[in-house]
Amino acid sequence: MASFYSDYFPKDLLSSLSAEVLYIILSYLPAKSLLNVSECNRRLRDLCQNCNSLWKHLCKIDFDADLTVKGSFPSFYILYQLLYKSRIILEDTDYSTFSGYLPDWLYYWSALSTKPPLPGFRNLPAGRTKKTWGLTEEDLTNYQLQSSKSREIVRLERYYSWTDGLEAALCKHQSRQRFHEVALKRCMRSQKQIHKTFPKASRNQRKRAFNKFQNEHRSLKNILSKQKEGSGEFLSYQSPHKIGQDYIEGSYLHKSGIKQLESYIEFAKQLEQGLDIAELTKDIPECVLLVYEKLSPTAHQRFIQAEEFLDVAKEYLERVKRVWRWQNENGTEVRKTFRDCPVVKAHPSYSAYIQTGNESHFKTLKLNFEGLEKLKTWLDENQWIIKLLDSNFISILRGAPLQKSNNEVTAQAIQALRKMVKLFLKTGRRVDFDRILKRLAESARRFLHIHLEYVESLERTLSRD
Fold it and tell me: 444, 435, 405: which is closest to 417 by C-alpha?
């Protein structure tokens, strides 16, 4: 079967088709799909970007711009791009014609549409109508006179409808083609403003979309946003996690957009539902973030299904479970006493092991906490020594923070003990543990010797008396 297929069908069937057939196929695609297809190879890129009829049709479908000519623009593909950017900029501004202000060049691009691009554009003041379509008072009067012959006067007292402005412009230029030629000349002069303003407007649009997405998924706010104290339940005021930041900045997910975010959330839900250890629910946000960091370059190129996220998450989750089993190997009470979750997860070797799976990191983690457990157990069994040692010695043995010491000799002894403890927590060797005990014995002997001198001095004082 495979040989039959290779004999009669080329590997790249789409590229083997003639240009005419490809044009017919591409004519059924929306703009976003056309751009994705254009990245397959050079031939498809040239076909997608240089076919004026495709982009002329899309200008009409997507922006109600039924253009007859492209004017001085290189192609209808470039015109489509600028129309798209102008619409994004328009949606990002205060588009109310009664309270907000829009630059003239934004109205010029809007005038290419046969319908108002936004609700606030349905009726425009007379002055704005003149500027938008390049009309004069005489042009409006001529249009009113021609309109009155066939129907009632449509002119409003102070405002004109969008259709009136367009019809008046067509009446002035006497043809749609001539009107488009003049309108595109005005648009040509504003390309720099479009390119300059678009990045910020596009970012604001994605930010609004992400805030809305957050509010629709409040139950997963730990995955979508970083928590801030005092921000309450309003996720839109919280900083997004990396996936949200990448979406807002346009670094990743620009092709799949919100659809990719939805897939990511579905993956997080499935991961939580399939978790067989309830206590590990708090580890889900860290796991899903690690998965995203690994797959984010792929998300830049294509859409990723929730199942693909899950396959990558398995290795991270298995490492989390392995640490959990080690924490509980001696029972729940021992875990709470010596291997408490917040303390274990705060250790750098924990994050390093979860991310890389390197056995050396897991070994370092085990040696550290098993060593501390051994030191604390020995200390609990030898409570008498606590009375003979400086409190900082005890803090080092229990892994607690140190206090400042004014005694220089004591400070040197503390630093020496600290180095010994660090070495033991790295190696776990019996010889290093014995060195710690030897150091403790020396410190205890010094304490006893000093206080013995105090006792003898007291006895001598009593004998003299």
Answer: 435
Our separate counts of H helices and E strands in the chain read 25, 2
HSE-up (13 A, CA, CB side) for residue 248: 19
Q: What is the mean pLDDT of residues 349-373?
A: 93
Question: Please, are residues 95 and 112 in contact by the beta-carbon 8 Å criterion?
Answer: no
Summarize the confidence of residues 108-124 as an average pLDDT.
89
Which positions ≥6 away from 87 have C-beta within 8 Å? 63, 117
Task: Quote the tokens at residue 3.
Answer: 């040989």
The answer for residues whose C-beta is within 8 angstroms of residue 73's C-beta and 6 or more apart is 79, 82, 184, 188
Nearest to 182 by CA among 114, 216, 134, 244: 134
The pair of structure tokens assigned to 289 is: 């973030």
Q: Name the pTM for this structure.
A: 0.71
Q: Which residues touch 317 (CB under 8 Å, ≥6 apart)?
A: 271, 275, 280, 283, 287
Contact (Cβ atoms closer than 8 angstroms) between residue 260 and residue 303: yes
**What tokens were used for 174?**
């006497």
Q: Do 241 and 225 contact (CB within 8 A), yes or no?
A: yes
For residue 147, name the pLDDT band (cuts at 50, 70, 90): confident
